[in-house]
Structures are given as C-alpha cells and as structure tokens.
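Consider the tokenized backbone below.
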C-alpha cells in the first residue's frame, strides 16, 4: 500500500476523532451501554455510506471543490445557499469548540490560564492552516498514530478495574441522548476532498482509505466508551477523563489530556483548512483573505464569551449535521446522473437506504429542535 493511502487515512481519522469522543461516555452512561453501542453501530454505518457517497461525488467531478461547490454544481443556487449555511456554521462551531477544549487540556497539562492557552492554541493552529495541507498531512499521520496508542493505553490501564455491572444499565428516558454527540463525533465529511488531493490522480486506494478511516474511529470510540463506563458507570463525568482519576490515578488526567489535545489539534487543522478552501475555491476569495475569514470568527466568538462547547456540539451535530447529511444524499443522487467523469468506484444502493437515512436525520433534527427550544 502506498504512503498516500496511509496519509489520506490518517487525515480522515484525525478529522473524525476529535472533542466529541469525550462527550460520548457521559451520554452513553445516562442511556445505557447497549443503547450507546446501538447508536455507534447505526451511525457508524450511516457515515460510512455518507463518506463513500462523498468520495464518489468528488471522483465524478472535475476540478477542486468543497461541499458548497458540489452543491452548486449538482443542485444549483438553492443547494449552494443551504450548503454554505450548514458547512460554514458547522466549521465555525467546530473550530470554536476545539479552541475551548484545547485551552482546557493545555491548562490541565501545563497549568496557567485556560483563557491564555486557548488563544495560544488558536494562534499555533491558525498558522498551521496558513501553511497548507502538506504540513497538516505530516502532523495528521503522527497525531493519528499517537491517538490510537493513547486509547489503548487507557484501555489497558482501565481493564483490571472495569465493573461489568456498569455495562448493563438501561434508561429509556435518555434513549435519544447519545444521538447528537455521536453524530457530531463520527462525521468526517470535510476530510474527503482533502483525501482526494493527497492521492494526486491515482485513486485506486481511495475507497479503501475511506472505509478504514471511518471504521477505525468507531472501533476506538467503542473501546474508549467501554473503558470509561466500565470504570466509572453512572458517575461518568461530562468530559469523561475527570471521572477516571479516583480509579486510575492522577496520571490518567495528564494522559487523557494529552490524548484530548492531540485529538482537537488534528480536527482543528483539517476543518480549518477545508473552511479556508470553501472561501478560496468555491467563492473565489483571495487565498490569504480566505484564511482570515476561516480563522477570525471562532476567536471573536470566544472573546465574546461563547464558551459552552457542549451546547455547540449538540446543536451542530443533530441539526446542522443532519441537514448536511440530507443535502449530501441529494447531491450524490444527482451526481450519479450527470457526473463529469467516470469514478474509480461506484456504489449500487437501493432507494430505501437513502430514504431511511433521510428519515433518521429528519427525526434527529425534529427532536433536537424540541429539546433545545
């Protein structure tokens, strides 16, 4: 397998495995481990399909585009407007959430002011985005490998003190609670066009990279959730790591914070670059102005005290993430008919699958709107 396969896979893994992983154990602990596995499995399959749909879309289309550009090509002006709204606000919200949590992790590791660390995190990551994909790919490959190691170290350390009774609780009142967080945590659509650029016209391993890059995070999430809930049960903390300290020692806090910092760095870099390229490729904005537009809003929002990342990821995952998923299916079905080139792979999916995914996202949007307002 060539190095582009590993680099592209690392980009997808690094995009998916982000701050959302730390919210999953808490929501799953409230609903029950079995229900959590159910949502992980269902949404894992859904996003595997969505990632493959998007991969086929980019292979069927000439030129460099991002989600907004594909929506315009295949759905027209209304598609571009809706895609612009969802993609840009999802990206801004993600960068804000990563900035908030990145500062918290740095404070835990080094001490000092969370506010100052968040700003330092923002400056360093923004400079990495400015220098483009090459440096990000190198960072992603290292970070993704390290993230995998961190998950398994926490699993190994936690295994001896796991209480199996913690894995068999069930509360139907919180049945839907994990949905929004898992939806947020498992999506990596923004990385797909970046992966295409990495392969440089040789796309034979593109499909395999998407499959591996999607399923490995689902496996990692399962291991992480099993460990945290197995150890802390209903006492699982909202950020997962703090609740482990009594059972695994204070060193777990540092280890978990390092893991978390790496996770948010990789996601911040890929999403920030993709947002920059929406302005650059799809709107024709100057390269450097696009960078400013991509990075300025999150730091302004942070300075205006928008710092509740749980609210941010819950809303974005269920509502905007659901809208993006529905829109992607509409783009995919149109691209199947009027695509500009023959793709290296082509899926044959029954219509009932499309309608089922749209129904899932639609119900999720309705639930979140009712729950939030």
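A designed sequence for it:
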């Amino acid at each position: 397998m060539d190095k582009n396969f590993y680099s592209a896979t690392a980009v997808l893994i690094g995009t998916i495995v982000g701050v959302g992983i730390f919210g999953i154990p808490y929501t799953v602990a409230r609903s029950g481990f079995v229900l959590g596995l159910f949502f992980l499995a269902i949404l894992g399959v859904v996003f595997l399909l969505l990632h493959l749909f998007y991969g086929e879309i980019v292979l069927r289309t000439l030129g460099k585009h991002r989600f907004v550009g594909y929506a315009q090509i295949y759905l027209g002006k209304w598609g571009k407007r809706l895609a612009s709204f969802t993609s840009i606000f999802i990206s801004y919200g993600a960068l804000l959430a990563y900035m908030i949590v990145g500062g918290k992790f740095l404070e835990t590791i080094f001490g000092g002011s969370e506010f100052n660390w968040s700003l330092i995190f923002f400056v360093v990551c923004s400079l990495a985005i400015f220098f483009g994909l090459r440096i990000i790919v190198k960072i992603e490959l290292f970070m993704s490998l390290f993230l995998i190691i961190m998950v398994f170290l926490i699993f190994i350390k936690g295994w001896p003190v796991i209480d199996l009774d913690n894995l068999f609780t069930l509360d139907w009142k919180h049945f839907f609670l994990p949905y929004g967080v898992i939806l947020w945590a498992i999506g990596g659509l923004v990385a797909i066009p970046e992966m295409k650029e990495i392969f440089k016209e040789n796309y034979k391993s593109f499909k395999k990279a998407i499959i591996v890059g999607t399923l490995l995070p689902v496996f990692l999430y399962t291991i992480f959730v099993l460990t945290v809930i197995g150890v802390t049960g209903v006492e699982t903390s909202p950020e997962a790591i703090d609740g482990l300290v009594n059972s695994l020692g204070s060193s777990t806090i540092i280890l978990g914070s390092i893991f978390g910092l790496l996770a948010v760095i990789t996601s911040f870099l890929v999403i920030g670059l993709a947002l920059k390229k929406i302005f650059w490729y799809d709107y024709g904005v100057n390269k450097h102005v696009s960078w400013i537009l991509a990075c300025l809003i999150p730091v302004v929002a942070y300075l205006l005290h928008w710092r509740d990342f749980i609210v941010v990821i819950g809303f974005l995952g269920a509502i905007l993430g659901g809208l993006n998923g529905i829109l992607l299916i509409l783009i995919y079905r149109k691209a199947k008919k009027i695509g500009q080139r023959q793709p290296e792979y082509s899926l044959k999916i029954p219509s009932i699958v499309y309608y089922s995914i749209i129904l899932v996202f639609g119900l999720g949007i309705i639930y979140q709107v009712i729950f939030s307002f």
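The chain has one domain: 3-372.
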